[in-house]
């Protein structure tokens, strides 16, 4: 069954109530997930586990937002990391230089990201495939070079020094490890939920149509350029959120956050977890960070181990883990229940 | 073609997977090793382009830890080093540092990171309050800037501004003697290269006011081809050249500039030349390159220093690096401070370390001091000399004068608003 056939099959009568049901279910799952994550500190005193979840939030938001482009719209961006870095730097600089409350800096960072993403996106999304990939990469390197050379403002290759001030707001003190943890979880869950809504909305299905056949979408009256630009900006916002979580975690921002290797890691995460399911990148994030953390504990030749793992996924499974699991499950259900 | 799957299936399996993963990996995290040994965590760079330096840091630390352990340990507790690769990424350095303290139970920390990684670990030390010695970051601001100052962090690395003062005065003396007025610079295009070059020329001009910089080149870090830079400098026809290229960049630069016989046409001042990682790699090391000392076993010219260099060579079959002596010094200082405090507790060691002077093979006068007010190492051997193509490579090093360094450093701090 192709994507379109699947779409058509569902576009029958029960779709309205079905969609609403799905939405409520998503919200419910999000609430449960948040409750589970937020209550974790009650059961364990392991700061390392909390650190791990905070990093998962940062990378998870970032990787899932890349999947909005790669998996849903077919836009393979090699420069998505620029928004991760932009988020971290904007947030850090606003907090250091202006000393505004954290929510203000948060919103201002999102506004800056949206503006930059709109300008870069307007240039990039006209291009297709490899050209799009390379122009996004070029913009990433432009931002990275700017951070490096504008040393008086950004601190150059030493990064933002002196820590990011984290004044308390509304009783939330992000300098406190538990508070930071819960806030990161909240941002992750809210971000995922919002991206899920985008993916499941009519707009999300428009994106899938553009991915499968942009010419047809265009003939049906869809402004392909505008839709692509919109999702480019939206994805940038979530990547920027990930960058802010990372900036809060390390209490700084470093040029490596805007380097192409960060984009590479997000693509790697998507390959690990799979791009055909919404939660694929999230699974990939957990996998990559677990792999990274455990492998670096035992050997400094982690590059070899990670390389073998990605070869296994690329050549062995030929898809991400969650893709594989989902297909296997569907296959079993089809044969097992004789549908 | 990518396809959208039934949402319910993936979600359930994902949650199950995530749950299982969390359980599996939470278990060992909860259990903390409790023993009489004291663990010292050390994030450093063990992979990538500067892995050689990270490895040499680890080697030096292990060499010294063995001695301390043989002598009874740190206030009676045997040291166990937990050394982990940060890949040279600041976010990894921060993560590894946190993990070392929170999971592995390290009570003390040696931060063998360079550049941005050191600042990332510094924030972790600020956050967790763990005792920390930065061993490799030469960026002056790390300890000079009062905003960076925390009671539990120290530095045992050389400092950029010290190098510039000594280099500037040494180069100015030669400039005056030989009448070198037209200078060119060629340094890597990043903060270290820019800052160090600016500070060097500042002090050069201060001591020799009629010096003029007629050409500046800023090759990229890790640039493979320097032809363009070399020809640009040759065309400008300077009488002297300053460079703070280092490691592989410096050696490729020299190999390529040799083709143009550049070193016969001008006096060359390369601050990072006198390090074995560069000296032993260059194909035809030109005679007479002026360089600052990094680590060289002939300077200071003491039997202790030569013995240390030989012991390292005997154990690891290669010569120590600049990072080696800086890391070894950290362990020596820690051991001495623990003895003085009669405790391995981080807070007490930090207190004892302030202003502590110890005997050390790398001291200008046989001792080094951890300066109390800004927690940075002073009194270490610092000087300049000229190269010869074979061992001992830099036969004579002219020592810098610490009195001048202190005076000019205080002035520099004022000009930066640090003091």
Q: Which labels suit this protein?
A:
heterodimer, A: 339 residues, mainly alpha, globular, disordered N terminus, B: 419 residues, alpha/beta, Rossmann fold, 2 domains, 5-stranded parallel β-sheet, 4-stranded parallel β-sheet, 16% strand, branched-chain amino acid transmembrane transporter activity (chain A), cell membrane (chain A), transmembrane (chain A), transmembrane helix (chain A), LivM-like (chain A)
Question: Any overview of this molecule?
Answer:
The complex is a heterodimer of chains A (339) and B (419). By secondary structure, chain A is an all-alpha fold. Chain A has 15 helices and no strands. Chain A has one domain. The N terminus of chain A is likely disordered. Chain B has 419 residues and is of the alpha/beta class. Chain B has two domains: 199 residues, Rossmann fold (3-Layer(aba) Sandwich); 172 residues, Rossmann fold, CATH 3.40.50.2300. Chain B is 47% helix and 16% strand. Chain B has a five-stranded parallel β-sheet with strand order 2-1-3-4-5, sandwiched between helices. In chain B, strands 7-6-8-9 form a four-stranded parallel β-sheet. The relative contact order of chain B is 0.12. The N terminus of chain B is likely disordered. The interface between A and B is large, with 66 and 56 residues.
Largest contact between chains: A-B, 66 and 56 residues
Q: What is the tally of helical segments of chain B?
A: 14
CATH topology of the largest domain in chain B: Rossmann fold
Helix segment count of chain A?
A: 15
Radius of gyration of chain A: 20 Å
Q: Please name the CATH architecture of the largest domain in chain B.
A: 3-Layer(aba) Sandwich
How many distinct domains of chain A?
1
CATH homologous superfamily grouping of the largest domain in chain B: Response regulator
Uncertain runs of chain A are: 1-13
What is Rg of chain B?
23 Å
Q: Bin the strand percentage of chain B.
A: 15-25%
Series of H and E elements of chain B: HEHEHEHEHEHEHEHEHEEHEHHHEEEEEH
Number of strands of chain B: 16
Indicate the low-confidence ranges of chain B by residue numbers: 1-9, 23-35
Distance between the termini of chain A: 14 Å
Principal-axes shape call of chain B: globular
What's the assembly state of these chains? Answer: heterodimer
Approximate helicity band of chain A: over 70%
Beta-strand share of residues of chain A: under 5%
Quick check: average pLDDT of chain B?
86
